[in-house]
Amino acid sequence: MQKALSYFLLPLLVVIAVVVMGAVYIVDVREKALVMRFGEVVEVREEPGLGLKVPFIDRVVRYDARILGLPTNAMEVTPLDDRRLVVDAFARWQVQDAQRLYEATRGVGLSLAQERLDGIINDAIRRVLGSVPSTAVLSDDRTPLMNRIRDGARAEAESLGVRIIDVRLTRTDLPEQNLAATYARMRAEREREAADEIARGGEAAQRVRAAADRTVVELTSDARRKAEVVRGEADARRNAIYAEAFGRDPEFFAFTRSMTSYERALRGENSSLVISPEGEFFDYLRSDGAERANPAPAPATTSSSDAGASDAASRAEEPQAPVATSSDGTPLGENAGVTLSPMPESLAVPPQQEPAVPAD
Questions:
Q1: 280-312 pLDDT, tens per residue?
Q2: 295 Cβ neighbours under 8 A, 6+ residues apart
Q3: What is the Cβ-side half-sphere exposure of residue 345, based on CA atoms within 13 angstroms?
Q4: Is 153 within 8 Å of 102 (Cβ atoms)?
Q5: Angle formed by the axes of helices 98-105 and 110-129, to 10°?
Q6: Which CATH class is domain 68-179?
Q7: How far apart, in whole angstroms, are the C-alpha atoms of residue 110 and residue 36?
Q8: Which of 54, 276, 296, 303 could potentially form a cystine with 58 if both were Cys, beta carbons 3.0 to 4.6 Å apart?
């Protein structure tokens, strides 16, 4: 009897265990679950934990409750200025209402929901980017555009029972067939800007070079003018000194001229002179001409008052160097900014020599 009872209880315990296991289900913290009975939703479980269902009749449909990502395919959009762009985006979304999602996808699941979301996001991208110029799309600050795309897609995605959290534009480029033309236009613009900069730099260099050349010419001309003025005044002073010295003693003038002639004629370069040795040319080689020199006048003894008058008269009779002046009467030395040194006293007033007294 006990043996037969054990044979009966063992299958009963197995059946009870199978029934209990079929009636209990677990909802994970990362999931949302629907209890379905004959195709109808009888319970929605969004909280984690254990749940009971009718075994072999009810079934549990689970959806991921985490935030999911959805990358979109690259697509061409036409902004407001008819300039085509290639754009792709990335969206973040989450299941908000599991029952509505099940009814919208007819039980297919998240794969169909992602396909519909892809279309919704693409339509929102085309609609928003088509209402703004391409410069706004290609700018660094595209946050307002992405917020508009997110809000537009979120309103349409509510019918699927999902919530779009964020939409980001990951790439905005020109189409491949337009890149070469765009790069060529950019290169031409940069080359034009470079040519303008080079031209402006060359113009500035020419102005600087012309100013420097003009300054050099002005400085050189002014220096040459001052040099000519100084040279002219020096020549005038030299000629005055020579004229005064030669005027005091004609014999000294003749002697000086002869010495200069000797220096120029007798250079020791195998030159030949055909001239009589008794001629006038060799007078100062035979005699120094002292007997023909004019002796200096003897100083007269006068009183003190007469001496002062004679000194004043002698100073008045002293030769003065000629002063060269410009058309307005200004001395040339002052115009040139050069001060000449005074004439040496030894040349202005030659020393007086006592007359030779013949011996008794």
A1: 777 776 666 666 666 555 554 444 445 455 554
A2: 353, 355, 356
A3: 3
A4: no
A5: 90
A6: alpha beta
A7: 17
A8: 54
